[in-house]
Amino acid sequence: MSRLRLDRRRFLALSGAGAAGLLLSGCDAVSRAPWFRDLAGQTDKLTQAAQRLVLGPQTLAREFPESAISSYFRANGNTDVANGIYHQFARTEFVDYPLPVEGLVSRPKSFTMAELKAYPQRTQITRHDCVEGWSCIGKWTGPALAHVLNEVGLQPNARYVVFHCWDTFATFSGSVPYYESIDLEDAFHPQTILAHEMNGAPLTIPHGAPLRLRVERQLGYKHAKFVRSIEVVESFDQIHGGQGGYYEDINGYEWYAGI
Ligand SMILES: Nc1nc2c(c(=O)[nH]1)N[C@H]1C(S)=C(S)[C@@H](COP(=O)(O)O)O[C@H]1N2
Ligand SMILES: [Mo]
C-alpha cells in the first residue's frame, strides 16, 4: 500500500515542468500510485503477485493474546446506517436478519443468522490497521466465509466476492453505497470470516452490526461493515465505479490493500 500519494493532476503538473525524468528513474511514489500503474497498462495484480510471491498464498496474519486486546477500539467510517429497514432488524437484535448470497453461484441462498452461527466458528485476535495511520487490536468471531461459499457453490467463471453494505456516503454524484470486494484466494483464506462478535459480544452498530467482513491481511477499508448482501462476480467493472470498492472508486485507494 503506498502511503505516499501523488495525484494525477500533480503528476501532470510535474511532468509539464520537465520532471519526467522522475518517471524514468522509477520514483517510488509515482510508480506505486494506482493511476500510474493503470497508465502503464498494469494492474493491482502487480502488488498482489509480489506480496504473494514473498508471503505465499496461505500466510496467516499475526494473531495476539487476549492481553493485547485494545481497551478502546476506534469506530471509523460510517458508524450508523441511515436506513429504516436496517433499523427494523436492529430493533430485534438482528434475529431475522437475512444475508443473500447471489451472482455466479450454483445455488443462490439467503442465509439466516442462525445458519451462519451454526457453522464452525473461528475466533481470532488481530490488529486492524487503518490507512489513516491508526491501529487497534480486537477479537473477532464468526464463520469462515468459505463455509458460505461452499454452500452456494461457485460457478467456473467466479473470480471475486463483492460485499454490498447498508450504509452510504454523500458524494458529488449523490449518495453512494459502501461496498468492497476480494479475490477468491482471500475469500477462502482461513482468517477471512463474517464476524458477528467483537471482543466476545455481539457486534455493535458502530462496528458494523450484525455482520462485518474480516480480511486480516488487508487494510481497514477492505473490512466491509453492515454487510447487506454478497455477490460473486467475474469482474467488478460494472459495479458502481468499477474499481472494486467505495474508497477505490472515490479516493483511488488500491484494490489490493496488503498490509
Ligand atoms: N460499510 C462500511 N464498512 C467500512 C467502513 C464504512 O464506512 N462503511 N469504513 C472502513 C474503514 S476505513 C475502516 S478503518 C473500518 C473501521 O472499522 P471499525 O469501525 O470497526 O473500527 O471499517 C471499514 N469498513
Ligand atoms: Mo480505515
What does this protein structure show overall?
33% of the residues are buried. The termini are close together. 26% of the residues lie in helices and 26% in strands. By secondary structure, the chain is of the alpha+beta class. The protein has helices spanning 8-16, 21-24, 28-32, 34-39, 45-55, 84-91, 113-118, 145-152, 184-187, 246-251; strands spanning 98-103, 109-112, 121-129, 135-143, 160-171, 174-183, 193-195, 197-198, 201-202, 212-214, 227-233. It has one domain (61-250): Oxidoreductase, molybdopterin-binding domain (Sulfite Oxidase, Chain A, domain 2), CATH 3.90.420. Strand 8 (197-198) and strand 9 form a beta hairpin. A five-stranded mixed β-sheet has the order 2-1-11-5-6. Bound molecules: ligand MTE and molybdenum atom (MO). The ligand Nc1nc2c(c(=O)[nH]1)N[C@H]1C(S)=C(S)[C@@H](COP(=O)(O)O)O[C@H]1N2 binds at residues 74-78, 130, 165, 167, 178, 206-208, 220-221, 223-226.
Run of helices and strands: HHHHHHEEHEEHEEHEEEEEH
At the fold tier of CATH, the topology name is Sulfite Oxidase, Chain A, domain 2
Radius of gyration: 19 Å
Q: Return the CATH class.
A: Alpha Beta
The fraction of residues assigned to DSSP E strands is: 25-35%
Q: Figure out the total of helices.
A: 10
User: CATH homologous superfamily, by name?
Assistant: Oxidoreductase, molybdopterin-binding domain
Major beta-sheet overview: 5 strands, mixed
The CATH architecture designation is Alpha-Beta Complex
Helix amount, in percent? 25-40%
Overall pLDDT metric = 86
Structural class, by secondary structure, is: alpha+beta
Ligand names: ligand MTE, molybdenum atom
State the low-pLDDT regions, or none: 1-43
Q: What's the total number of strands?
A: 11
Shape: globular
